[in-house]
Amino acid sequence: MTLPPRKDSLKWSAYPEDVLPLWVADMDFPVAEPIVRALKERAEGFLGYPPREGDPELKALLLERTGLEGEVAFLPGVVVGLYAAVAAFTAPGQGVLTQLPIYPPFLAAIREQKRTLLANPLRETEEGYRLDLSGLERLAFASRLLLFCHPQNPTGRVFTEEELAALAAIARKHDLIVVSDELHAPLTYEKPHVPLARFLPERTLTLLGPGKAYNLAGLPMGAVVGPKPLVEALKRHLPHTFPNVLAMAAWKVALREGEPWLRETLARLKANRERVAAWARGVGLGHFPPEGTYLAWFKTEIPKAAAFFLKEARVALNPGESFGEGYDRYVRLNFATYPEVLEEALRRLERALEKR
């Protein structure tokens, strides 16, 4: 077991040393050997400015591997793409649609740019979280833009083709532009990921990146894929930067040679997912095992649950309230760690629950 050095890791340095960090979404595992090799080789070469449009071979690979079509533009990161989309397709005061609970930068991109959040919460059913399509239909007339997340963060839903087709029909009917964050697309278990753009190619901008699947968050980079007019509109709101040459090299070799590492990593994550699900059943927490991502979303009976677990269990989790108003009794747990770390964290959490 090789954990990242605390001083080099946000995840491991943000809290005191007695706290086990299962919060920010990166993995504790080393990156794939072909990526390490490619980075060393690239660092020995020319590290000046790359072409402003980035590596054309990487663009072609992205289209080939994802099955997406359209224009490709590189981004400093997927979050930058969310902010740029809100700026490009809405004006201050206008509404932006999204599903709650949602990855906090979605909410920040809306709030910080003085737009109005139009919240369409996921429905919590006995079978798990589902899109509220009737709620989306009621709200769609009030917006031009829907920010979508698939696989969904924090619930881990991988939406079905039927759900995606229904969402696409609503978006087409109401002339919505949909920006679909599909950063976790390679990290699915039993159910394969299908891009939303397959059902709405003319109105979808897909955001991609290597950071989650290949554990490259420290080399931030993303891409947007979609119809050229929409990509060009988004690009006008991007910062004036060049694509990172090391990030492009890492992403390219990940797509070409990273599949064996990814399969092994998914097997490790699946085992951890099943352990977490069994634990949640045993302690009586509300939980649906994620169909994708390495993130577990729990419902508790504890107000400000993350603060409680940090104090009483010395385990750092993401607070549910950061994913939307009304979720303070929820927490998000990152299970992309070694079994020994996960087991100790679960023991601590269980002891804290028993003391209540």
UniProtKB/TrEMBL annotation:
SUPFAM superfamilies recorded: PLP-dependent transferases (SSF53383)
Cofactor names: pyridoxal 5'-phosphate
Pfam families hit by this protein: Aminotran_1_2 (PF00155)
Q: Gene3D superfamilies, from UniProt?
A: Aspartate Aminotransferase, domain 1, Type I PLP-dependent aspartate aminotransferase-like (Major domain)
Q: Per the UniProt record, which EC number(s) apply here?
A: 4.4.1.13
Q: What terms describe the molecular function in GO for this protein?
A: transaminase activity
Q: Which CDD domains match?
A: AAT_like
The family line of this record is:
Belongs to the class-II pyridoxal-phosphate-dependent aminotransferase family. MalY/PatB cystathionine beta-lyase subfamily.
What protein is this chain from? cysteine-S-conjugate beta-lyase
Protein's organism: Thermus brockianus
